[in-house]
Amino acid sequence: MKIIIDRIEGDIAVCEIDGKRFVNLPVSLFENAKERDVYVLTKDDSAKEEALNKAQSLFDKLKKK
Q: What is the Cα–Cα distance from 57 to 61, expressed in whole angstroms?
């Protein structure tokens, strides 16, 4: 997914998504955001698996107490 910052209005970044639609997102989501910056959003299955394993580990520790 390609996200292009069309403009910044205060704390809001007006973003074009895949050249089809616009959404308002908090400008704080983007590091050093500037108009016309382009970001590519990708899914990270390995990070998801890591987060699930960490959550399961914490849950297992709580059950043992």
A: 6
Instruction: Annotate 15-50 with b (16+ C-beta within 10 A) or e (fewer).
Output: bbeeeeeeeeeebeebeebeeebeeeeeeeeeeeee
What's the rounded Cα separation, in Å, for the pair 18 and 35? 16
Per-residue pLDDT tens over the stretch 51-63: 999 999 999 999 8
Q: Where are the domains of the chain?
A: 2-64
For residue 43, the surrounding DSSP H or E stretch is: none
Token pair for 32: 């050093």
Q: Considering the entire predicted model, what is its pTM?
A: 0.69
